[in-house]
Design goal:
250 residues, alpha/beta, Rossmann fold, 2 domains, 5-stranded parallel beta sheet, two-stranded antiparallel ribbon, binds zinc ion
Length: 250
């Protein structure tokens, strides 16, 4: 009876529902084919093109495994980071770019289902995954949170599956900064976020291994500044997971 229900009855009901309430793509609002979930075929294809690919485990830029020396690519071989490694789901290109912007700026929080799929596919195979004690969403200033109604990185963090690690929000942003994407040079980006973060009194970061969660990594200045603050608070290791990273040398 159960086999009948699963194999025949459910597809019939699903098909009937699709006729009554045709699904639309969460990204572009086109009608989706019956077999596609959440996104239309074009958006799934575009998304899969931006995923995967070898990247540098230190800076997150595109890099081949064979071009790494001590886990560093030619782009970051002489850079200093406060974080100890990075993982990414994809590169910052269409349609992931539009989805992140809509998620962050236009209340399209239902896209968290897509980011959940991306994060839970990319993260578990990363070397540092098992050692994480806390996921720490990169914070926004409280005024941004009030205007927006949520911190988008916290929504992403909530969707990450991990057997033991918890979300910790004791890293806070203590002053507003300019939009990093509007600043042209890595120097300006670093100056923009310098000393913009702090930890709450009574935090539990000492000795912990932490994975910062952010949507985009461009020059890495924000993640680096967060990592610096957490290390000053006694954290042992800082890693980062981003949905997307600029592949160019930013
Ligand atoms: Zn679409
Ligand atoms: Zn690198």
């Amino acid at each position: 009876m159960r086999i009948f229900a699963d194999k025949i009855y459910k597809p019939v009901i699903d098909g009937f529902n699709h006729l009554l309430w045709p699904s639309v793509c969460l990204n572009c609002s086109q009608r989706t084919a019956e077999a596609d979930k959440f996104l239309c075929r074009d958006c799934w294809d575009g998304l899969s093109e931006s995923l995967g690919g070898d990247y540098c485990p230190t800076c997150g830029r595109d890099a081949t495994r064979y071009g790494l020396v001590n886990n560093r690519c030619p782009n970051c071989i002489n850079e200093q980071f406060h974080f100890d490694g990075i993982a990414r789901a994809g590169i910052y290109t269409s349609p992931i770019r539009e989805m992140i912007l809509a998620f962050k700026l236009s209340d399209k929080t239902e896209l968290d289902i897509i980011f959940s799929l991306l994060a839970n596919s990319a993260l578990p195979s990363v070397e540092f995954f098992d050692s994480i004690d806390y996921f720490v969403p990169v914070p926004v200033h409280w005024t941004t949170r009030i205007v927006r109604g949520y911190n988008h990185t916290q929504l992403i963090a909530k969707k990450i599956e991990h057997p033991t690690a918890k979300i910790n929000t004791d890293l806070v942003k203590i002053r507003q900064t300019k939009d990093q994407t509007l600043l042209a040079s890595p120097k300006k980006r670093a100056a923009n976020v310098r000393d913009a973060f702090a930890v709450r009194d009574g935090h539990d970061f000492a000795g912990k291994k932490i994975c910062l969660i952010d949507d985009i990594k461009t020059s890495g200045a924000t993640i680096n500044e967060c990592a610096k603050t957490l290390k000053q608070a006694g954290a042992k290791k800082i890693y980062a997971f981003v949905l997307s990273s600029a592949s160019r040398n930013l």
